[in-house]
Design goal:
Blueprint (H helix, E strand, L loop, with lengths): L1 E4 L2 E2 L6 H7 L2 E4 L14 E3 L2 E8 L7 E2 L4 E5 L8 E9 L8 E3 L6 E2 L4 E9 L3 E5 L3 E3 L9 E10 L2 E13 L5 E2 L5 E4 L5 E3 L2 E4 L9 E8 L2 E3 L6 E3 L5 E6 L7 E5 L3 E5 L5 E7 L12 E2 L7 E4 L5 E3 L2 E7 L3 E6 L16 E7 L15 E3 L1
Parallel strand pairs: 5-15, 17-30
Antiparallel strand pairs: 1-2, 1-12, 3-5, 4-7, 6-13, 7-12, 8-11, 8-14, 9-13, 10-11, 14-15, 16-29, 18-25, 19-24, 20-23, 20-26, 21-25, 22-23, 22-27, 24-28, 26-30, 31-32, 32-33
Length: 367
């Protein structure tokens, strides 16, 4: 069980590519507490109103443990905690579209279709979250197939509250190169083009269009501003939407390259790209592009487009001047002595190993 405070859930997450394709939260439903003046405290459920379970083309191979049921004790009632909080989850409404079984996390029991999660005593104003089950896919589903999960929260000193989540099978998996060819010799401040691409190897069409998610790290910054994209204020993250219904067994690329640049002093950086087939824009992307929108161009289906997300490793012209740091060995023949060896970074580049705590021109990295 994970502690949940101030309307935030702290949970273990799987890699970003799986999280993007398997666990998209579409909306959040807040279920008000039932009115009961005889109770000390009130409970509130804040599970998602809609949840994307897995991609249709994954079928029975899909598995997803990301669905959580957070329960909060509404602040008040003299500060009393919610005592012996429990949630019963019924997944019988998923018949034909998914199977729920053991394998989530937290204090939950049951093998399906009903699971019981014990939250214990929950502090006033705080909350807890459990993942009651692991969802397993089934063969023969299509994008948009769905079912409903219901849950009921109780406590010794609170009224009962209930909630539901509509769980949906997502569109097809869109594949990218596992790793693009590295880009070398980039001059900081100079824009460099990138042409993202994907292939739809499945038998399904992307009925809801597609989206492109780009993340720039380690000093890289996006310089393109297409009107079909939203950005964060630092221009290190972009979300671009395309209404194109990508046909089965086809491949596409953007019609115009997306450009990026490297910051001064950075020797290397990374760009990551993924293509969700059920576009739901992430939070925090508040800047809208002002240039011509991007479109998709159909291409021949090449080999190598078999991964759920791709990365581009970028090397710049910035070099770091390293000086070896030695030591004088003193002792007699046959003695065992300690020697501290390392290096000093004189810049201008930042040392690549940031965890080594090398400060340019100031500190040694001792081995």
């Amino acid at each position: 069980m994970r502690r949940w405070i101030r309307n935030r859930i702290s949970t273990a997450r799987r890699p970003a590519a799986l999280a993007a394709t398997l666990a998209t939260v579409l909306a959040t439903a807040t279920v008000p507490a039932a009115a009961d003046n005889s109770r000390e405290v009130a409970l509130r459920l804040e599970a998602p109103a809609a949840f994307r379970m897995y991609n249709a083309d994954e079928g029975a191979e899909a598995a997803n443990s990301d669905f959580v049921v957070p329960v909060a004790v509404v602040r008040g009632g003299g500060g009393s905690p919610g005592r012996n909080v429990k949630v019963v989850v019924d997944t019988s409404g998923l018949a034909g579209v998914a199977r729920a079984g053991k394998g989530g996390y937290g204090n939950c029991t049951g093998a399906g279709p009903v699971f019981t999660c014990a939250y214990g005593d929950v502090q006033n104003g705080d909350g807890e979250a459990n993942a009651p089950f692991t969802l397993h896919g089934v063969d023969g589903v299509r994008p948009g197939d769905s079912g409903t999960v219901t849950y009921t929260a109780t406590a010794d000193n609170a009224g009962t509250v209930t909630g539901t989540t509509r769980m949906t099978v997502g569109g097809p998996t869109l594949h990218t190169p596992e790793q693009e060819k590295p880009v070398k010799g980039v001059e900081p401040g100079t824009s460099v083009p990138l042409t993202p691409r994907f292939a739809n190897h499945s038998r399904f069409t992307t009925e809801n269009g597609v989206a492109l998610r780009i993340t720039a790290r380690d000093g890289l910054r996006l310089t393109s501003r297409p009107g079909s994209c939203s950005f964060d204020t630092a221009f290190t993250s972009a979300w671009c939407t395309f209404p194109t219904r990508a046909a089965a067994r086809t491949a596409y690329r953007v019609n115009s390259p997306i450009t990026y640049t490297a910051a001064p002093g950075e020797p290397a950086g990374t760009l990551s790209c993924s293509w969700p087939s059920d576009p739901q824009e992430p939070d925090g992307l508040t800047v809208r592009g002002t240039d011509a929108p991007l479109t998709l161009t159909r291409t021949a289906t090449p080999g190598g487009l078999t991964y759920g997300g791709s990365e581009v490793h970028v090397e710049t012209t910035v070099q770091a001047d390293y000086e070896a740091v030695g030591a004088t060995v003193r002792g007699r023949v046959g003695d065992t002595v300690k020697v501290r060896l390392g290096l000093r970074d004189h810049g201008p580049g930042r040392a690549a190993d940031t965890e080594a705590h090398i400060k340019a021109g100031k500190a040694d990295h001792l081995l």
